[in-house]
Specification:
The protein is mainly alpha-helical. The protein contains 11 helices and no strands. It folds into 2 domains: 50 residues, Homeodomain-like (Arc Repressor Mutant, subunit A, Orthogonal Bundle); 133 residues, Tetracycline Repressor, domain 2, CATH 1.10.357.10.
């Protein structure tokens, strides 16, 4: 078996797990179902992912990495923290609109006890570490409130999940400039120094 076919099977497992975890839930999805739907043997699934929990964790981290790469590449750092934050915010919301299945996965599993806290911490502090750096920069510049770093990042994450849920439930509002602008204003005002 070539490295390319291994990667293809592993990716097929991840893609299938994504669909099934969103549609049936983690506990409602068996590894046998994932393997069958992915077109691989159950042993192949366990070769790549020793447990269903590890499959979920790898899927979670890979989707987070894809998200982080997409939003970072959309930002042209200008040195103006608020403008940079606004670009990141809209890039994040655009990614969610363009990737509804992956965003549904985030909605289900980002705060779920099914995903170990250490894995969520890795996603927040390693993969999305650039957001923490922006928060620290804003605090150092006196633009953002001097609240605990982890609380600030979790608040950003919660606001992102709320805004994406809002626009997913009301897609016509995503087309309205004042709705998009209001979403960023709420996000910024929750952190800004008063």
């Amino acid at each position: 078996m070539t490295a390319g076919s291994k990667r293809t099977k592993k990716q097929a497992i991840l893609d299938t797990a994504l669909q099934l975890f969103v549609s049936q839930g983690f506990h409602g999805t068996s590894t046998a179902t994932i393997a069958r739907e992915a077109g691989v043997a159950t042993g192949t699934l366990f070769h790549h992912f020793p447990s269903k929990e590890q499959l979920l964790e790898q899927l979670f981290l890979s989707v987070k990495q894809e998200f982080a790469d997409a939003i970072q590449s959309a930002v042209n750092k200008r040195g103006d923290l608020k403008k940079d934050a606004e670009q990141l915010w809209f890039a994040a919301l655009s990614w969610a609109i363009d990737n509804p299945l992956k965003q549904a996965f985030f909605q289900l599993y980002s705060m779920s006890p099914t995903v170990e806290q250490s894995v969520r911490d890795q996603a927040m502090h390693s993969i999305l570490g650039f957001i923490g750096a922006l928060i620290r920069q804003g605090q150092a510049q006196g633009l953002l409130a001097d609240f605990p770093q982890d609380l600030m990042q979790d608040n950003c994450h919660g606001q992102y999940l709320a805004a994406t849920r809002y626009f997913a439930d009301h897609p016509e509002r995503w087309q309205q400039e004042h709705e998009r602008s209001a979403s960023f204003a709420l996000f910024w005002n929750a952190m800004a120094v008063r």
